[in-house]
């Protein structure tokens, strides 16, 4: 999976859409503490720090941003509050993860996954998240893109249905109609 983004990491960093700043303010307001966040599948850091403004890092004392693609991480913008870590797997083993995050169990206030959860071993991810997420008061926020934009909706639907046979099998479920309008937050 990491190899899928190696050759085009620079283009990916330049072209991937940014997330709305108020999304991160709203997520921050949901957490009881603001010490540590973990951005899982950070790619080149759009959720961790964003392009034109800090995102998660604006609201938390420290952010650990992990990804399986070393090349994506090389294109991430450095930030004093963000520690980028290359992981061997999308979801490291629980013991490795707790050690890697550096705060021990129940030490993470916010876990973000921006357009990456389809690559994860979900039982392993949620098991690890349970161990590191602060209780009570911790939040897991997982989101993806809403590709249905009015003027191009039909064109995009044709594009996805035509190209689906050529997609990596792990990414295919993205075509399911899991549409979040205006980033509905579910807890």
Automatic annotation (TrEMBL):
Keywords: Methyltransferase, Transferase
GO MF entries: S-adenosylmethionine-dependent methyltransferase activity
Keyword S-adenosyl-L-methionine among UniProt keywords: no
Residue ranges annotated for the Methyltransferase type domain, each copy included: 39-141
InterPro entries found in the cross-reference section: Methyltransf_11 (IPR013216), SAM-dependent_MTases_sf (IPR029063)
UniProt cross-references to CDD domains, sorted A to Z: AdoMet_MTases
Pfam families listed in its UniProt record: Methyltransf_11
SUPFAM superfamilies, A to Z: S-adenosyl-L-methionine-dependent methyltransferases
GO biological process terms on file: methylation
Residues that span the membrane, as ranges: none
Top-level taxon in the UniProt lineage: Eukaryota
Protein name: S-adenosyl-L-methionine-dependent methyltransferase superfamily protein
Organism of origin: Zea mays (Maize)
């Amino acid at each position: 999976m990491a190899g899928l983004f190696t050759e085009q990491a620079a283009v990916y960093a330049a072209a991937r859409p940014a997330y709305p700043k108020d999304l991160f303010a709203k997520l921050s307001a949901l957490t009881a503490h603001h010490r540590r966040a973990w951005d899982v599948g950070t790619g080149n850091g759009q959720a961790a720090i964003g392009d034109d403004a800090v995102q998660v890092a604006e609201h938390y004392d420290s952010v650990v941003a992990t990804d399986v693609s070393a090349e994506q991480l090389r294109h991430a913008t450095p930030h004093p509050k963000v520690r980028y870590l290359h992981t061997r797997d999308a979801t490291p083993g629980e013991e490795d993860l707790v050690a890697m995050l550096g705060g021990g169990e129940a030490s993470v206030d916010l876990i973000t996954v921006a357009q990456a959860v389809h690559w994860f071993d979900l039982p392993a991810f949620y098991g690890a998240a349970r161990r590191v997420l602060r209780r009570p008061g911790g939040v897991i926020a997982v989101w993806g893109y809403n590709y249905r934009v009015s003027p191009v909706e039909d064109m995009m639907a044709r594009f996805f249905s035509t190209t689906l046979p050529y997609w990596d099998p792990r990414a295919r479920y993205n075509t399911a109609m899991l549409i979040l309008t205006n980033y509905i937050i579910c807890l």
